[in-house]
From TrEMBL:
Keywords: Aminotransferase, Pyridoxal phosphate, Transferase. GO terms for molecular function: transaminase activity. Its cofactor is pyridoxal 5'-phosphate. It comes from Shewanella surugensis. It comes from the Bacteria. Belongs to the class-III pyridoxal-phosphate-dependent aminotransferase family. It holds the Pfam family Aminotran_3. This is Aminotransferase class III-fold pyridoxal phosphate-dependent enzyme.
Length: 443
């Protein structure tokens, strides 16, 4: 990621150099390291913009990888949090009335949720959902989809190594870990399949169907360019789980409360047994949850077969007051209409620019988190994504960043839209995208 040399900023570079005395790579999350000259240090955020330590403002389509759904520093949410902190506090290690209140609100928006528990991050929500599914079914195996992401815990730190795979052979790709420090034993119960591949899911259920506790899937791959499960494939997963007594876990950490009130599963009209939520449910405050079928969730208990769940910071008042305010706004205002309109307008202007330069392009996923892919067909899974011109995308993205439009320079990360994007100057954005593409084609 070190080839955006033009981003080099005096203050940012000095801050990185200093931070490297204190943190590996000088950053708190390794993916924030964009190279010695390009690592971004943010001074403040507002609406749909972030401003770096050198004073450059960016219109932000990265939105912290998705949590910002209303806008940065939304006073309606922030005031609710401040009121809670000043009147009630932060944590007590006991229950508050807010716990059930927030879940009742979620149940209004997501009718298939019967019972829930809270968590502090998407990772924790997935850990809770997977453990609950295992406790309920008494089985261990989980099936995940190539190109999906479910958090930073050992079991989910494995991927099907399509990048180093000879697709002409009959053998499946190797399974490799994301880095070292991941014990080999942690992959024992993991199966991976390509999205939208019916034969692959049939084969895995045929082989180990009776051992499968759950399929864990992002219904729309928020970590692979918003490539969506087809309606028929999602129905197939639902049917396979029903037939084999496995559970369907939809990881809606990115899609939940973003793509629609009821998340991606409401777009499919197919219910998960368990669902994980995080990101958009708190507009940037760290809050997460998992839940679904009441009979499944009730395995969380002190009975002999009970699943253990909890945590010091779980359902803290900061997180829950942010969730209550955010969810109320999403439920009661026309925020989704603004978000979807802005997303549609932005795709339309990008499409005009790509067409002008004769670039075959595809949009994937919903208007609130769409993927941009250069190629002749909409990719159906990670293997298809590999065939798109992601190099051109990265160059285009780098040029956009230089010109004040922030996004991840990797086409696997969607463009995230928040309510505050309704104020973006679309003519400026189109002219900027035009310039970024002209320069990308010249390099
Ligand atoms: N699931 C999905 C679908 C995600 O996109 C992410 C994070 N990008 C996670 C889980 C993990 O969430 P967190 O970073 O909050 O632990």
């Amino acid at each position: 990621k070190d080839h955006m040399t033009q981003l080099s900023k005096p203050t940012g570079n000095a801050l990185l150099e200093n931070a490297q005395n204190h943190m590996p790579l000088g950053v708190a999350d390794s993916y924030r390291y964009w190279g010695e000259n390009n690592t971004v240090f943010v001074k403040h955020t507002q609406g749909c913009t972030i401003t770096d330590e050198d004073g450059q403002e960016f219109v932000d389509f990265r939105l912290a990888y998705g949590p910002i759904i209303l806008g940065y520093r939304d006073t309606r949410v922030d005031q609710a949090v401040i009121k809670t902190i000043t009147e009630c506090g932060t944590i007590s290690g006991f229950s508050t009335a807010l716990d059930a209140e927030v879940i009742a609100l979620i149940k209004q928006m997501c009718p298939n949720i019967e019972k829930m528990r809270f968590a502090n991050s998407g990772t924790e929500a997935v850990i809770g959902a997977v453990r609950t599914a295992r406790g309920f079914t008494g089985r261990n195996k989980i099936v995940v989809v190539e190109g999906g992401f479910h958090g930073l815990y050992d079991e989910m730190m494995w991927k099907s190594d399509v990048d180093n795979w000879d697709s002409s052979t009959q053998n499946a790709p190797q399974i490799t870990s994301f880095g070292t420090g991941i014990p080999e034993a942690s992959r024992e119960h993991l199966e991976t399949v390509p999205l939208n591949d019916f034969a692959a899911i049939d084969a895995v259920f045929k082989r180990v169907g009776d051992d499968i506790a759950a399929i864990v899937i992002e219904p729309i791959l928020g970590n692979c360019g918003s490539i969506a499960s087809s309606q028929a494939y999602m129905q197939k997963l639902r049917d396979m789980c029903n037939t084999h007594g496995s559970l369907l876990i939809m990881d809606e950490v990115k899609t939940g409360f973003r793509v629609a009130k009821g998340g991606a599963q409401s777009l499919y009209g197919i219910h998960a047994d368990l669902t994980t939520y995080a990101k958009a449910m708190g507009n940037g405050y760290p809050v997460a949850a998992f839940g679904g079928r009441g009979d499944v969730m009730d395995i969380i208990s002190f009975s002999k077969k009970g699943v253990t769940h909890g945590g010091t910071y779980t359902a803290n008042m900061i997180a829950l007051s942010a969730a209550k305010a955010t969810l109320t706004l999403l439920n009661e205002t026309d925020a989704y209409a603004s978000i979807n309109q802005a997303g549609a307008d932005i795709q339309a202007l990008l499409s005009r620019v790509f067409t002008k330069y004769g670039i075959a392009h595809q949009f994937a996923g919903p208007d609130s988190m769409f993927g941009v892919h250069f190629g002749d067909e909409v990719p159906q899974n990670y293997r298809d994504w590999k065939k798109t011109d992601s190099g051109l995308y990265t160059q285009f993205a780098h040029n956009l960043i230089k010109l004040g439009v922030m996004l991840e320079p990797d086409s696997r990360e969607p463009w995230f839209i928040c309510e505050a994007h309704k104020n973006v100057d679309l003519a400026w954005l189109e002219a900027t995208a035009d310039r970024a593409m002209a320069e990308a084609l010249n390099t």
